[in-house]
Amino acid sequence: MKKVLFVGVFHPNSTNVAQVRAFSNNGCQAYAYDYRAKLSKFNSIQERDDNLKQIIQDLKPDITLFSKCNAMHHSVVEEANKTGKTALWYMDALNNFDAELIEKVKECSTFICGLEGVASEGLKYNSNTIFIDQCPDEQMNFYIPNCEKKYDSVFIGNINSSVHSDRVTYKQLCNFTHLSGVYGLEHNQVVNETKINLGFAPTDGCGTSVRAHKILAAKGFYMSTPWPGMEQTFTPGVHLETFTSPDELNEKIEYYLAHPEERQKISEQGNAEVQQYMPLNWAKRILEHLE
C-alpha cells in the first residue's frame, strides 16, 4: 500500500479535501498536512517547514503531493525527494506563477497543472510537466432533483480582477445576476437554482478554473467564454455553450431561456462527460503517472 502525504489546505470548502480522500479510495494510505493551519501553531514559516520535514523523515511517504503550497520553501520538496516521488499540483492562472513557485517546480519529480495553458510555462522549468483536468467534489457538487429555478442567469465569482479584465465589460453590458463569496454547498445550491450558469475564462489564455467542472457535476447548464484547449475536455454545443462577446451572450441567454429542453439536454450531456474527471479518477491519473 502506497503512503501518500498530501500537503495542502483542508478547510471544509477546499478541493484538497476531496482529493486526499480520492487517494484513500484508490487504496493508498493517505495523510493530510494542512500547511496553512499548521503555520498558526509555529512562530515562523521556517519552523513550520522544519516540522513538515520531520514528518517526511518519520513517515517516509512513497509520494508527497504539494498543492501549490505558497509560502513554503523548496527545501521541503528536496527533503521529500529523499524518501519518494514528489508532485506539485497547481490550479491557478499564470498571475500566481512566481519565483517562489518556480523553485518548487524545479525540485519536484513532476509538475501537474490544472490549466492547459500553464503546462507550457511549467515545461520551461520541469520537463516532466503534465496537464490533468481539475476535479469537482462529489460531496459538494451534485445534482439536486426538483430544485426550484430561482435565477435566470448567474455568474458566481470575482468581477474586478486583473486576470479577468473582460468581466467588468460583460457585467455592464449584459443582464445577469452576479454573486460573490459563495462557496461549498451554498455554491452548489445556487447552481442548482439557476437556469444558466456563466463563466469567464482568464483572458491570459491559460485555461479555465474548476468552476466549469463543479457546475457540470451539479448538472448545471454552463455557458463560458472559450479557452485554448477547451475541446480536449468539453465540446461546445454538446457539453456546454460558449460566447465571445456581450452581444452574443445576451442573445444566447435569451435563446436558452426560451428553449429549456435544449438546456436540459446539454446539461445532462455535460454531467455525463464530467464524471471521468471526478476525484477518484484525478488521483488515479496521478498515481499512474508517477509509476
Strand and helix map with partners:
Blueprint: E1 3-8, H1 15-25, E2 29-34, H2 35-39, H3 45-59, E3 63-67, H4 75-81, E4 85-90, H5 99-107, E5 110-113, H6 116-122, E6 129-131, E7 151-156, H7 166-173, E8 177-179, H8 184-192, E9 194-199, H9 211-217, E10 222-224, E11 241-242, H10 246-258, H11 260-274, H12 279-290
Parallel strand pairs: 1-2, 1-3, 3-4, 4-5, 5-6, 7-8, 7-9, 9-10, 10-11
Could you explain how this protein is built, in words?
- It contains 12 helices and 11 strands.
- It is of the alpha/beta class and 291 residues long.
- The radius of gyration is 20 Å and the shape is elongated.
- The model has no long low-confidence stretch (mean pLDDT 95).
Radius of gyration: 20 Å
Low-confidence stretches: none
In N-to-C order, the SSE pattern is: EHEHHEHEHEHEEHEHEHEEHHH
Query: Number of DSSP helices?
Result: 12
Mean pLDDT, to the nearest integer, reads 95
